[in-house]
Write a structure and sequence with these properties.
mainly beta
Length: 126
Amino acid sequence: QAQLVESGGGLVQAGGSLRLSCAASGRIFSRSAMAWFRQAPGKGREFVATITWGTGTTFYANSVKGRFTISRDNAKNTVSLQMNSLKPEDTANYYCAARETPWDSTLSREYEYNYWGQGTQVTVSS
């Protein structure tokens, strides 16, 4: 059964850092675009970052560009999100997502992903 499991969330002060990880079952990782989305209370889910399975090309939301870095380890079937210079507005539940695709394409829309993790909470205090 395909599965995504996130970890690494927590409480951090503004300006601090956190690293999120997502472990994926092999069936949905080897040729899958991977991404992170987030959902703050009372808001819809929004795109954060994505990385392709072939060349490792990345794409970020403007709100996190220069602060967050997405990476993947194909040998370990994991994708990570390094979050630096965190702001209170980064507070949200962060979700890992995957989409099997034959193309090495960056996918940034929620409907393009068909596998989702359960989420991990990130809280940034001011």
